[in-house]
Amino acid sequence: MTSRSFHPPLRTLMGPGPSDVHPRVLAALARPTIGHLDPEFVAMMDDMKGLLQYAFRTRNELTLPVSAPGSAGMETCFVNLVEPGDKVIVCQNGVFGGRMKENVERCGGIPVLVQDDWGMPVDPNKLEEALTAHPDARLVAFVHAETSTGACSDVATLTRLAHAKDCLVIVDAVTSLGGSPLEVDGWEVDAVYAGSQKCLSCIPGLSPVSFGPRALEAIKRRKTRCQSWFLDLSLVMSYWGGGTKRSYHHTAPINALYALHEALVMLREEGIENAWRRHRHLHEALKAGLEALGLSFLVPEPARLPQLNAVTIPEGVDDAAVRAALLERYGLEIGAGLGALAGKVWRIGLMGQSASPRNVLFCLAALEAVLAEQKAPIARGVAVEAAQRVLAASDR
């Protein structure tokens, strides 16, 4: 068997991630590889830290990209902050809250679940009840933007409740960073992790994280050694610390970091608040088109994410057949439902570079064509026009 170079097809990525990657970011990947301790690379690392602080809206000194995907960012938070026997309140309203629970267990902690229906935000009243019932809890963990459902929870309120009971807070911001308002300092979040491949429009494989002063103090007071050598922040910081003197920890993914740096430069050029507004506005256009078709959303509007739209599949429609037709005929990827929502919703992403007027109109036209072939109960010929009205309103 003869192996050949791989040439992927061109796709429009409108699933739950990865998102489309801008040509500037792809071009950054092709720049010359230099050593991970080269003075020029170290200077870029320092600049990267400042760009991540801008994206997270924080001054936290311990802000860096973990050299692995968002799941490793999650583990970085838990293995450094959870010790055996620690009680951790985990709020679960989708798939990724469940992964937090498993991280607590693997660290030897004791998880206390606060559960909400999938598609609903975390209920602050339930968290407050759990905190009262478990005064010995040390941490609270929850997902800001639940990728499996498209629901957005109130970080500021949940964090305030946790701090009132002297609990640290771990926040999953994988889908929210760059796409929805996130104020790490303003909301006093202790530890937060994200991913490179969603609203930042970078390639997958890196996980920005940030740790505040309370979290750093907890790490310094640990009674046991961090169970992960690779993710032990006391070691990682010897490489990502400030200044020119860096200790070798691991060989960083140099070219991938070029790409993330370029994506963050582009976010700074656009302006973080402009990026939030862009995602919201394009969601409104997509929403108008989908509702004109006759489709509905899983998540109630006040808690609905702009960048991850969970759309209910019409009765009698073959979920897999629709997604396959979109991919094969139009080169358009949308996401399937996860867990309890498998076969019940599509997850349509509007993230980063994928959040564009062209993609909104293209998605609506392609989806209408495929659903019409399946004789789904939709209104025809109105979706694109409904979206265009919303888009045109912003141009005036």
From TrEMBL:
Its cofactor is pyridoxal 5'-phosphate. GO terms for molecular function: alanine-glyoxylate transaminase activity; L-serine-pyruvate transaminase activity. Residues 34-337 form the Aminotransferase class V domain. Keywords: Aminotransferase, Pyridoxal phosphate, Transferase. Coiled coil: none annotated. It is an enzyme of class 2 (transferase). It comes from the Bacteria. Its EC number is 2.6.1.44, 2.6.1.51. Pfam families: Aminotran_5. Belongs to the class-V pyridoxal-phosphate-dependent aminotransferase family. This is Serine--pyruvate aminotransferase.
